[in-house]
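Practice record 12: protein with nicotinamide-adenine-dinucleotide.
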Amino acid sequence: MPDTLKITDIPVDGYERVVRGVDPQSGLHAYIAVHDTTLGPALGGLRMWPYASEDEALFDVKRLARGMTFKSAVAQTGLGGGKAVIVGDPAKVKSEALYLAMGRLVDALGGKYITAEDVNTSVHDLEIVRRATRWVSGLERKDGGSGNPSPYTAYGVFLGVRAALGQVFGSDSPKGRTVVIQGVGAVGSALARRLIEAGATVYAADKNEARLQQLAGEIGLKPIGEAAALTMKCDVFAPCALGAVIHDQTIPGFQTPIIAGAANNLLLEPRHGKALAERGILYAPDYVINAGGIINVSVEFAPGGYNEALSLSKIERIPQALRELWTIAKEERIPPSDAADRLAQRIVADAKGAKKEASCAVPKRGSGGGGG
Ligand code: NAD
């Protein structure tokens, strides 16, 4: 049967490649954005979402791909930034044919983009994608992958929370501290467990009341309401549910000296980083503190393949990265979120410059110089 997948390039300033893939046979309507591969192949998850328009899907895939470049740069994963989105309602469009077509779309980029799990994409879906392309990461350990990234993300966030406690209180021990976690899903629940084991009192809110009650029984967290999570007096507020929880309406209500959580894109707008700093709240930039998952995936590409000890040692650098950002922020009187963006941009620009220099230094064939 002829392949009906049609791939179209969409020129976008500042992005190495953006493509649209449409396959009438399987119903695939997807976009891949390769933001920057200076530091390595662009790795980022595959999201499925019922976007209302092409513009909305493109906006999201570009924003997320750029975010991955920044995250990987600061975490030193040796990877670049990219992302993919499939337009559609997961309850209606998911099929084997659709993920096979997605695999062919990923394959057409020849390894410039490597896909992974994301919202509404499971490891099972990725296994289907893998049948059409080798450029898939985050599969089960038994299939040569690095497995579920969430425990590694949670470990990094836990270490980041400790670093923030050290910064604010002079001791990084969670013992006797009060932490409010918004969202106790895969990452939030693992974070809660670690914090409780380390002696903190953890209050948590979740839309899923049954899960909250179950965790209360299992690990001893204290359930609170959704609204209370944003205003309760505590030592750390750890948002681990959705992005964009830090904005004009929520900032005045926070009663915490620290915001450090796993969710991506926590600031609704960049200016909200400044507003937090003005309120004296220490912020752990989201893509720095939540990099444990991508660090773990990146170790799949290490010589010799995945190695958990190497992954943990790299995740254990997150506190130092945060401390450096807080120092830069203080010295340059900018919010830590801006310090993170600047650092990421500088790392990529330096690598671009180094590559350019290296390519200029290589003598061209026949350009003389030899033999005399
Ligand atoms: P998840 O879906 O397993 O958990 C999210 C939880 O938040 C769910 O239990 C949900 O019921 C709850 N929730 C949703 N809206 C809420 C609200 N308004 N108030 C309280 N609870 C609410 O997701 P996850 O994998 O644990 O990821 C959590 C966040 O961290 C996401 O924003 C994700 O993008 C980000 N993140 C995750 C990873 C990872 O490795 N899983 C890596 C980096 C960033």
